Amino acid sequence: MSASATTSPAIGSLRNDPITFEVLRNGFRSICNEASALIERVSYAPTITEGHDYSVSILTPDGRLVSHGQRDQAPHMGTFESSVQNLVREVDTFAPREAYIYNDPYTGGTHQNDVKIIRPIFHEDELFAFAIALCHWPDVGGPMYGTFNPRATECYAEGLRMPPLKLYEDDKPVKPIWDLIAMNIRVPKERVAEIHAQHRAGVLVEERLLGYVEKFGSKVVTDGFEDTMDHSERRFRAWVARLPDGTYEFEDWGDRDLGKEDEPPIRVHLKMSIEGDQVTMDWTGCDPAPIASWGFARPALQSATYDGTMHCFPELAPLNHGVVRAIEIVSTKGTCVDVVEPTPVTGYCSGAYEKVDAVTMACWGQALQKVDPRRVHAATVNLQNFCTGGTHPKTGSKFVSYMWLEGGQGARAYADGNSFYMMIFIGGASNQPNETLERWYPMVYTSTEAVVDSCGDGEYRGGFGIWRSFRATGDTELVVLGDRERVGPFGLAGGTNGGPNMVLLNPGTDAQEDLGMFTTKARLRAGDQLEFGSNGGGGYGLPWERKVESVLDDVIDGLLSMDKAREVYGVAITEVDADALVYEVDEEETARLRDALAGDERPRGTGPFEVNPLGERLFGRPADLGTSR
Amino acid sequence: VRRLRVAVDIGGTFTDLIAHDGSGGELITVKTPSTPPTFIDGVLSALDKAGIGAEEIATFKHGSTIATNAIIERRGAKTGLLTTKGFRDVLAAGRANRPDLFNSNWDPSPPLVQRRHILEARERVDYEGAVLEELDESDVREAARKFKLRGIESVAVAYINSFMRPEHEERSKQILREELGDGAFVCTSSEILPEIREFERTSTVAANAYLMPVIESYIDDLVSALRDWGYQGEVYVTHSGGGVVTARAARGVPARICHSGPAGGVVGGALVGGLAGFENVITFDMGGTSADLALVAGGEPTLAPEWRVDWNIPILFPAIDLVAIGAGGGTIAWVDTGGSLRAGPQSGGADPGPACFGKGNTEPTITDAHLFLGRLNPESYLGGDLEIQPELAEQAIERLAAQLELSANETASGILRIANANMTSATHLISVERGHDPRDFALVAGGGAGPLHAVDIARELRIPQVVVPPTPGVTSALGILQVDLRHDLLAPVLKQVRDIEGDELVGTFDRLRDEAAQILDAEDIAADRRSVELSVDARYYGQTPYMNLRVDEVPTSPEALAALVAQYRERYEAEFGYQLPEDVATVEIVNARVAAIGRTDDVELPRSDGDTEAEGALKGSRPVYFDEMSDFTDTPIFDRSRLGSGAAIDGPAVIEQTDTTVLVPPGASARVDAYRNVVIDVGSAGDTRAVTAAGSAKGEAA
Q: Among A311, A390, B3, B147, which one is least packed by beta carbons within 10 Å?
C-alpha cells in the first residue's frame, strides 16, 4: 500500500510503466461497460432494459473493487467489496465456471431486490478476480408486489434472502437452487432472462480479462489492479490535502418511522474530519434504527458515503478500492445507518441512502466552497419506490411493475439545478416510457409535466419535479415506499428546500385520499386516478438576488407562477398578452418588493420551501464565493 | 459527350468532388475549400476546377453536414410543438439519465423546442389504437393562433400512441395548415416515424420540424444554383442510413439527412475493401479531433435503429452503426494528479491544433508524438501546405516526459499506445461483442491520421490486413457515388408471433409496399432499377432493443412464422452466446419495414495490373522510432503518388502522400494492388505477440 501522506504524483510507485498502466486502467473500465451493455440488451424487465437498474464490476480475489461500468448504479457497486469479502469467507474453495447468487443485505448488500451473480475468474488454476453482475429484480417474493414493504418490522416480512448460493456449476445452472428461488418469487419465468444476462456478463468479463492476461501476463494485470487503486487514492488524497483541516457537520431527516406510534422523524448526522490528507466520516450521531423499513446495514452506509464523495470528485470515476481505503467510516451498530438483522431494509434507498448521500455532499461542500465552489450542491429529488401488481384484465397474466420518478436536481453554487433529473445516485438509470408501460400494465397515463412552483428557491433555483399521473384501467394493488414528503431536499446559503414528493388518489373528488410515501397495498379500481409527483431540488442563495430575467423566463415557460415570482423572488410581472408571450416587469415595484424581502422573515425548518437553518449558516452565498452572475 | 456520375461531399472545411464515367476510366477527384453558410460557391468551384460541363452530368449526388450542424449550432427554425394535453414535458424530461454516473456538473443540451412553445390539445389514443378521447379541434386552432402570433416558423405534432392511430395527428396537421397557410412547415410524428416510445419519437419529429425551413432553403438554393449553371437533372442528398433521396424528398424529412457524412465514408470504405478483395471490413477514419469506426459484414454496413445528435437528442432513423472516439491528431496528452498519462478528451482540433503548429497550444498531441517519432515529414506536412515546427513538438513531449520520469521516446510512443488501446476497446463493441471475429475482417484506414495507427490497431484486434485507398481523403465522396436511392418505411406491429393470425401482416406490408411504389414513382426510378426489401424488427417479448431480420416474402403460414422465430433465435445466439428457453420468452414483431430502393450501377474503378518496383518511388530515408525496436531506425520513405501496382514494401517503411501518411512497422509488409490500394499484411499473430511481449517486458523494467 502506498504511503498515505503522499500528495504529489508518485510515478515511481507504479508497478507497471505508466503507459501499460493507463492501457489497463481504461481496459478494466471498458470491460465493465461492455458487460453492462450486454445486460441492457439481453435482460427482460422494463426496470432493467428501459430503467437501467443494473451494475457490473471487477474485484480482486480478496474483494477489493477495481472498476465498474460508467453508467451503472452507485448504490450497487459501493457494496460489492462487502459482498465478495463475505462470499470468500463463506465458501471454502472456488472452481472455474461457477457462479454464486447472493442478495443478503446485512452481510453484503443493499436490499433484497438487488440480486448479484458473482463469478470467480481463474487463470491457470489460480483465483484471479471476481466479476459481479447485479440486476434489480422487480420482485423477490414476500407479502407485497415488488417486495417493498412499508409495514414490515422485520426482514422476514419483506422477501427472499439468499446467502451466497452456487447457482452455476461448470457453467450449467444448479437446478434445485433455482427451483427453490423460483418457488418463492412472483413471475419467476421472467427472471430466467435476468439470470442468463447476469451469468453471461460474468463470462464476458472473464473472457476479456483473460485476454489481457494472455497479452500482458498475469503479473502485469494484477499489478494493474493495484496501480489503479493507488492512482485513485493518490488523486483523492491530493484533493483532501488541499482542503482546510477541520471538522464539518451536517444533518438531514427522514420523514417518519412508520413503525412507531408517533411516527417520529429520523435524524442522519455526519461529522467529517479532515486532517492533512486523512478524512474520517463519523456517523455515530445518527438516530437509532427505526422499526420500519427505512435504514440500511453497514455495506450500504459505505456505499452511500462513497457515492456522496464521488459526486464531489467526479474526475475520480470509476470508484475503486483506492478511494474506499482512504475514507475511514465510523458508525454505531443498531443505528439507522448500521442496522442489524432483522430490521427491515427494502426501503433503504429512498430512506437512509438518499440522506447519507446528501449529507456527505453537504459536508464536502463546506470544505470545498472556498476552494472550488463548482463542487457545492444543494439536495436533489428523493427516490420513491412505486410498485403495482395484479392480474392484467386483458391478458389474464400476472404482473408486477417497479417505477420511480425523476425530479429536480439541487441548485449548484454557480447554476440552477436541472429539472427532470434522475436521482443523484442513479445517474445511469432512466425513466420508463409511458407507451411501453401502458402495454404492460393496466394503466393510462394522464401526464408527463412539470410540478409548477416545485423548485427550491434561490439565486440559483433547484430543478422542477414532475407529474407522471395515470388512470387505472383494471384492479391494481399499489405499494409506495418513498420519503421527503415532509422534509424537502435541503437548500443552502438561504435557498429554500425543494417541493414535496406526492402520491394522491382521486384528487378533487369525494374519494380523494393522500396516499403519501408509505402506502401498503392500496387498491386501485378501474377508473381511479393516481397523481404521482416528485420533489423539486433545493435552492442556493437568496431568491431576491436571482436575476430578474431568469425569473421572467421561468414564468414565460409556465414553470413558475406569477404569484411565486412576486412573493418569493420579489419580481413584479404583468401579463400583457399571454398568447403572444408578452410580459412586462415593473422595475420600480420589483425594487420595492426586493427591499422588503431582504428583511427575510421566511420560515426556517426542514419542510418544503422553508429555509434550512444549517444550510443557511454554513454555506457562503454566490456573491461570497464569486459565482454570482 | 462524357456521361459523368458526380458525387460531392460538403464538409465543414473542404468540399470534395469525385466524378466517374462508369466505364472503368480514371476518376476525377477535386478538393476545394467549403464556403459556408450556403456552401454553393464551393460546389460550383469544385465543378469548375474539375472541368466538368453541366451537360456531361448524368447524376448529381451530394452529402452535407448542414443539417447536423444546424442542430449542433442551434441555427434551426423557431419551432413549436403540439402535444397531447398533460404531456408538455415529454421532450424536456427525455429519459432523465446522464452519461456520467458521478458528474453533477453535467447539463443536458437545451431542447430544440422551448417549453413556452409547447402547446397542448385534448385527445387520447390507447396502446392498441382505440380512441379514448376525441381530438378537440378547437384546441388545435387555438394553438395555431398562438403559434402565428409568436412567429413560430415550423410546427411538430406528437401525440401519445399516435403510432398506433395517426388520425388525430393527421387532422391536426390539416387544421394547422388551414390556420397557418398551405406553405406552413408542419410535420407529425406518425408520418415521420411511427414507432413506440414517446420521447424518442417526439425528439425525432421536433428535430425534423426544427430543420425543415433551413434545409428547404438550402436545397432550393443549391438546386436553383445548379439550374442556373446549366444542370437540369435530379439532385440527390445522402442520408444517415447510407443511401440517397431526391432533394425534393429530403425537404420533407430533413432529419433523415443528418449524420450522413460518416455514412458516405463507411460505404466508400466498403467499396474500397471490396475491390481489394475483402467483403468484411472495419472502416477506420481518424481525423483531427475524432476517430470513427464501423463494421461492414458481407459488403453491407451495419445499421443501428437510432443515433443521437447530443446525449439527450435521439433521432430514431436507421443510421450506420458507428463508434466515435475522441481520439484524433489534435488529441492532447497530459498527466493527471495521480501521475497517470492520459490521452484526451481535450483536443487542440485544427486551431490551435498540435503544438507543432505554433498557434498557441503548448501541450503535446497525437500529431506531435508522430512528428517527434519521425513518422511525419516536417518538410511537407499535408503536402507542404502547412508549415510545422518540430522543435515545438519536441519541447512539448519533453516537458511531459519529465513529469512522467520517462524518456521522450517512451513518452511519445506511450501516447500512441494509449490512444490505440482506447480505439481498440471501442472496436470491440462493434465487432467481438456483436458476434463477429475480427480475424475475418480487413481494416480500411482513412483520414489524415488513420493510416498511421491502422497496423497497430489491427494487430491488437488480430485483424490480418489493412487497406489504405489511394486517396483516403475522398473516401466519403466515393461512397456517395456508390450508394443507392433508398427510402426506409416502417409500420408498428407490436405483437407476439404466437398471437399473429394468418395473413395479418399482409395488410401492413401491402400498405408499406404501396407507399414504396408511390415513392419510387415520384422519384422517377425506372422499373428495372427498383427493388423493395422487406424486413421485420423482432425481439424477445419484454426486451427493448430489437434486431432487424430480412424476409423474402411476408410470413403468413405457421411454418413461415416459425421460420422467422427460428431465424431470430439463431441470430440471438450468434450474438449473445445463448438462447432463452421457449417457454420463457416468446418472440415479438416490433415493426414491419420496407426499403424502397433505386439501384445505382456499381462504380468500376480503373484497374491496372502491374509489376512496378517500389524503388522507383523511394524518396529518401530518415530515422523513425518503432516500439518493436524501442529505438529509432533509419527508415525508407516512399512517395505514394509514384507507387504503381505490384510494388511491394517490407516494414519498416513510411509512405507519404499529400493527404495522409502510411506507417508500415517492422514485421508488416505492404503491396500495391491493381486499384492502387496499399494492402498491408500486419504480420502473423505469433510475431505480434512476440513484439507485444517485448514491449511489456520493457515496461516492467522501467
A: B3
- All three cell numbers of A50: 428501459
Main-chain dihedrals φ then ψ at residue A526, nearest 5 degrees: -55, 130
Decide: residue A126, CB within 10 A, 0-12 exposed, 13-18 middle, 19+ buried: exposed
Q: Mean pLDDT by 10-residue block, N- to C-terminus, for chain A (629 residues)?
A: 37 80 91 90 77 92 96 92 97 97 95 97 96 94 90 94 97 95 90 91 95 94 96 95 97 96 97 98 98 96 98 95 97 98 96 98 98 97 94 87 94 98 92 92 97 98 98 94 97 98 95 90 92 98 98 98 98 96 97 97 98 98 94
Positive/negative CA dihedral, B605, B608, B611, B616: negative
Chain B residue numbers with beta carbons less than 8 Å from the beta carbon of A434 are: 160, 198
Residue B568: all three cell numbers together:
431470430
The contacts found for A156-160 with CB under 8 angstroms, 24 or more apart, are A156/A342, A157/A344, A158/A111, A158/A112, A158/A293, A158/A344, A158/A345, A158/A346, A159/A112, A159/A113, A159/A185, A159/A346, A160/A103, A160/A112, A160/A184, A160/A185
| Cα angle B376, B379, B384; round to 5 | 95
Cβ of B93 within 8 Å of Cβ of A21? The answer is no
How close A134 comes to chain B (CA, Å)?
A: 16
Contact B617, B643 (CB under 8 A): yes
Chain B residues within an 8 Å CB radius of A530: none
Q: Hey, is the C-beta of A111 within 8 angstroms of any chain B C-beta?
A: no
| Three-state DSSP class for residue B654 | strand
DSSP string, A407-463: BPPPPBTTBPPPSSB--GGGTT-----HHHHHHHSSEEE---EE-TT-SPPSSBPPP
Query: Which residue in the set A11, A20, A430 is minimally distant from B404, CB to CB?
Result: A11
| Spatial distance between the Cα atoms of B584 and B671, rounded to a whole number of angstroms | 53
Closest A-chain CA to B145 = A579
The interface residues of chain B toward chain A in range 195-234, judged by CB-CB distance below 8 A, are: 196-200
pTM: 0.92
The helix/strand/coil state of B668 is coil
ipTM above 0.90, yes or no: yes
Contacts of B336 in chain A (CB under 8 A): 9, 235, 315
Q: Nearest-CA distance from A508 to chain B in Å?
A: 17
pLDDT in tens, A274-284: 999 999 999 99
**C-alpha cell belonging to residue B647:** 510494388
What 3-state DSSP class applies to B502? coil
A430 at the B interface (CB within 8 A)?
yes
Q: Tell me how far apart the alpha carbons of residues A264 and A271 are, in angstroms, rounded to a whole number.
A: 23
pLDDT single digits (tens) B261-305: 788 889 999 999 999 999 999 999 988 888 899 999 998 888 888
Q: Is there a contact between B577 and A203 if contact means CB atoms under 8 Å apart?
A: yes
Q: Which residues does B224 contact at the CB level (< 8 Å), separation at least 6?
A: none
Give yes or no for B23 touching A (CB within 8 A): no
